[in-house]
Request: fold
Amino acid sequence: MDNFFMNKALDQALEAYKLKEVPIGAVIVKDGKIVGRGYNRKEISFDTTNHAEIMAIKEASKNLKSWRLNDCTMYVTVEPCPMCAGAIVNSRIKELVIGTMDSKGGACGSLYNIVEDYNLNHIVEVRRGIMKQECSNIMKNFFKKLREGDKL
Amino acid sequence: MDNFFMNKALDQALEAYKLKEVPIGAVIVKDGKIVGRGYNRKEISFDTTNHAEIMAIKEASKNLKSWRLNDCTMYVTVEPCPMCAGAIVNSRIKELVIGTMDSKGGACGSLYNIVEDYNLNHIVEVRRGIMKQECSNIMKNFFKKLREGDKL
Reply:
């Protein structure tokens, strides 16, 4: 089941890749159904808040007509940054499934661990490394092509 | 000048108060002009990402047609949470002026200090305690009335 939904998150990452955006994707699942989808579109939208996770949270909140996403699981291809980790806590998402970690700026166990901090008002259950290789490969491929000056 | 713009952020907080939202407001200033405004509207919009700071960043990015807010100063009535502190770093805001601190969940010097972390790719210049009393009073008043069951 985890692989099925992480593949859906990877589909979202691919949408970002096609737009020459850093290929990160996310889906939010409730009762076995996808209620929110998102992919990074920071550059094309001129808006740094448009990370995959924020887009998915916005869509899920709209669909469920609630900012509380208590019974939801987010699948995201790359470890969330502080902004997105904070949004995940704020939205009370129950479970977070991460593909590959971001040792430099990740805020779910790498640089910070905002999602499992008992000082905050919500603790998220986290699983890491689901389809790690696939989630990592799409990022590596993107940055390799970017360095090579390819048109992606 | 700081007091002038913090008063504008307080005007935004008052808009939130009127809607029975936690009264936090923010403005973003570039070259002496306000380019983005925001107030917390989490409850009415069913969207936990709609904090004052995120709204202001979105508006400023839209107005300036760039996600990079390098030469901008944000004035915010209350210390930003992890989500908003992360968004401030992501948007490369130059200066952050904070009214009152949030010792429980603030991420700009209290629980975390995301905006002044040399491990991240941007450091924000922070000033704290500008119109602290006014920014604190509107929050205290709000929660007092909430506890009393008033209609605000």
In short: The beta strands of chain B are 25-30, 33-39, 73-78, 95-100, 125-128. Chain B has a mean pLDDT of 96. The radius of gyration of chain B is 14 Å. Residues 73 and 95 of chain B are 4 Å apart (CA to CA).
